[in-house]
Amino acid sequence: MAFVAHPLDRRRASLSLEPEPLGEGGQGTVTRVAGFGRLVYKEYTPQAGAVNDRALADLVNFGDNLAPTERHLLLGVCAWPVARVHDGDRITGFLMHEIPAEFLRDIGGASTPVEARYLLFQPGRAGQDLRQPDIAGRTGIALAAARLVDLLHGHGFVLGDLSSRNLLWQPAPPYKIFVLDCDGFRRHGGEPVLRQAHTPGWDDPLQPSTGPDLDTDRYKLALLMGRVLACDAHVRPGKELTLLPGLEPQTAHAVAELFARAAGPVGTRPIAREWVQAILGRSRIIVRRPPLRQVSEPAEHAGTHSPDSEWISLPIGPSVNRPSPETPSRISRTSVPISQQPLPRSVPTSRPSPIPAQLSQPPLRSVPQAPPPVPRESVPVTMPATTGPSIPGRPMTLGERVTASDAFAEQRRISRSAISDEQVTALINGLDARDGRLSVTEAGALINEPVDRTGLLMGAAKRLLNVDGYDVLTLKDGDQTVDLNLRLLMEQFFDEEVEP
């Protein structure tokens, strides 16, 4: 692949590097850059293999194109690539922000990043000076991790090597997180920057032969949630989960249920947002997800959503369960036998069947081809008359059914959106009448908005309709065509189980 320059690229020779590296790993060496604030340079080693220039540029673009507030939040919790570094036409590494000082402690006589693995064992000699968080602190760390995964999945990113070695935590209130090795992230369906690394003991038994995907991330997130809240480095879904004391019964029940579900087949594992809701003590909507697609190129228009504004690292406040006064000071445990862990009350029959144990590799996950559209009569693109409350005796339109659904209400709650329910109803009805495709001009006529504002509102509609990052609503043809996947819309909003 020919080298293509990026506006934010930096020449290797232009960097003023400190003489001694900060650290070395299997894929690269990290060195502080003088004169650039707290930036560091990760230089790939020859053993790391070929670098995918395009994938690294995509990571840089994502961070650079975020709104200022979101970008500040992302860079505050991730060592995200901010610029590629090249020597001639060869990418040698990238620039990122240095690990903040609050995530470093003197461990074994050296300043060391405080990895999440210190949360999974009783303090040993090396980490005996670390202040272990109480159960409120642990739930805060778990909540911050789940929110970050939710954000990245919403933008179509697969984390891949999600483990206790890549997640740092601040060992003092307010408990916060910081994620390393972000150049290992990739777009769902796209290629990684390098061959993806894997942490021993954090493998997904159902990972496809093509490598980690969104479902693999969900399994590893369940590992992280269960292990942090149980202080157990080896527990896995399907085994007995013995939680630390102090969680409210409702939260402990929800955590145990989600952890048990993660042992299920592909497509049934809990998504990150369900962990967020469980920790916050909110009711959950379980939405059946379509199978993951296998494509050869990175997604150009990944679906996005905006989780709660406090999605990353917050001081542990009233929203997180604190230990009750009766909690003993020494570490004891609340046993949740696997036989008593609650399971989902029903599983849609269309979900994938469990993979037989004798198969060495799970089958590739793919979306069945949609049937050809049924020819319809030409429908004028005008504002449908049925955009308000349903009229008794008249069947609800597709748009009305979507905006009246519990899944849409949940999307509306977590996504700040400028488009009204009436406009979403009219847009869906118009797209349904035209086999799922309209020009942006036609969409603007449907929702009574000028063309220049319609493009912005289509982004707002995507945040509402693209549940779990899947492309229900997309913009194509250079953002000139609005495309609605009617089959995915039906699956995401109507094939669901609501739990009180």
Automatic annotation (TrEMBL):
Record-annotated Alkaline phosphatase-like protein PglZ C-terminal domain positions: 396-493
Region (Disordered): 295-397
Compositional bias ranges of the Polar residues kind: 321-363
Superkingdom field: Bacteria
Alphabetical list of InterPro entries matching this protein: PglZ_C
A Pfam family it matches: PglZ_C
Protein's UniProt name: Alkaline phosphatase-like protein PglZ C-terminal domain-containing protein
